[in-house]
Amino acid sequence: MTVTLEVVRALPKIELHRHLEGTVRPGTVHALAVANGIDLPVDDMRTLYTYRDLRHFLDVYETVCSTLVSPADFHRIAYESVHDAAATGIVHTEMFFTPHVHLSRGVPAAHVWDGITAGLRDGIAETGIGVRMIMDCTKFLGPALAQIELDLFTSLPDPDGFLVGIGGDGIEAGVDDAALAPVFAEAARRGLRRTYHAGEFSARSVADAIRVLGCERVDHGPLVVEDPALAAEAADRGIVFTLCPSSDVLISQVYPSVREHSLPRMLEAGLHVTVNSDDPAMLGRDISDEYVTVVEQGLVTAEQLRDIAVGAADACWLPDADKTALRGRMTAAWSAFC
After folding, report:
1. pLDDT at residue 302, rounded to an integer
2. Does residue 338 sit within a domain?
3. Digit-coded pLDDT (tens) for 294-334
4. How far apart are CA 278 and CA 239, in angstroms?
5. Residue 290 located in a structural domain
6. Which string of DSSP letters, residue by residue, matches 18-67?
7. What's the total number of domains in the chain?
8. How far is CA 102 from CA 99, 106, 146, 149, 293, in A?
9. What is the set of active-site residues?
10. Rounded CA gap, 288 and 195, in Å?
11. Which among 189, 265, 273, 287 is least surrounded, fewest beta carbons within 10 Å?
12. Does residue 225 belong to any structural domain of this protein?
């Protein structure tokens, strides 16, 4: 079957690398800025989501977050994010949220969490998709802040079991990843799964993520193939890599074009990969766009795309019974694809 956006959008998909704050619609950013008296750096919202480099992207990310103040604001973005996910065919997603960008502005943790979880509940009730959340510490700010955030968000009510993992994002170069080991170990003791943004600047951070932080997943990680022994180790351990090929070009600029991405080499190395959008609103590309792109740019065949889509069920952090049911659903739908 021909891989078209219409066909792919109609198929069920699982997204494991999706930042809540990166899903905020431009119109919502503008509306919240007006409501909360926040000055935006642009007059035309169509120009806000354009970036010179990773540092500039992070600046825009913080601008978007600056418009979020009340629980109602967080409710709105979570609710809209669920609906936008469902519209592109996502049936289960595990989304990041970044406490630092909110707490550093004086927004109480309860406002963030209560708003997000209420928005998720309402969105899930209307769409039926599955959602879990991952608390992303800002890794270059060090372990003390990460521990504070872990304590805060694991102490808040979570009757729906939304909080499923801990992660780390932000600028990779020059960060002491190993310093976060005690925090990640404590998160594991509290029942959280572990993942980490790594492998966009060097393979070393991937090694730290899996050997020192005990991560089961690595977010991005394309440069792992620059160290064949490390890639073989990751394959043997069953480490999942939540790739975002377009993001690696447009934001972190690991590669000059998607066509040059290491995805084919990662598959050849036997690595378990998934394909994701990262920040769909901020990049103007959702997971369906990304699926079509990796085929059109020659990174994978239609058959490999099918295997990646189905394999995402094995990579998610659901209970075993739910994971088995999800895999069955994915297999049935994608077997008709090719």
Report:
1. 95
2. no
3. 999 999 999 999 999 999 999 999 999 999 999 999 999 99
4. 19
5. yes
6. EEGGGG--HHHHHHHHHHHTPPPS-SSGGGTT--SSHHHHHHHHHHHHHT
7. 1
8. 5, 7, 14, 11, 33
9. 200
10. 23
11. 189
12. yes
SS3 262: coil
> For residue 53, what are its two tokens?
């480099």
Other beta carbons within 10 Å of 270? 11
Q: Which residue do the tokens 């008709």 mark?
A: 336
pLDDT at 1: 64
Residue linked to tokens 């795309």: 305
We report the CATH number of the domain holding residue 252 as 3.20.20.140
Q: Six-digit token pair at 52?
A: 């010179």
pLDDT of residue 50: 84
What is the per-residue pLDDT for 194? 98
Query: Mapping DSSP to helix (H, G, I), strand (E, B) and coil, where does residue 202 land?
Result: coil
Q: Which of 317, 276, 313, 286 is nearest to 135 (CA)?
A: 317
Domain presence at residue 140 = yes
Question: 3-class SS at 142?
Answer: coil
Plot region of 85 (φ>0 → left; ψ -120 to 50 → alpha; else → beta) = alpha
Asked if residue 178 lies in contact with residue 166, where contact means CB atoms within 8 angstroms, the answer is no
The whole domain housing 295 covers 5-333
Q: Which residues of the chain are under the pLDDT cut of 70?
A: 1
Q: Which residues, in sequence order, are CB contacts of 159 under 8 Å at separation 6+?
A: none
CB proximity list for 20: less than 8 A, separation 6 or greater: 77, 78, 81, 95, 96, 97, 116, 133
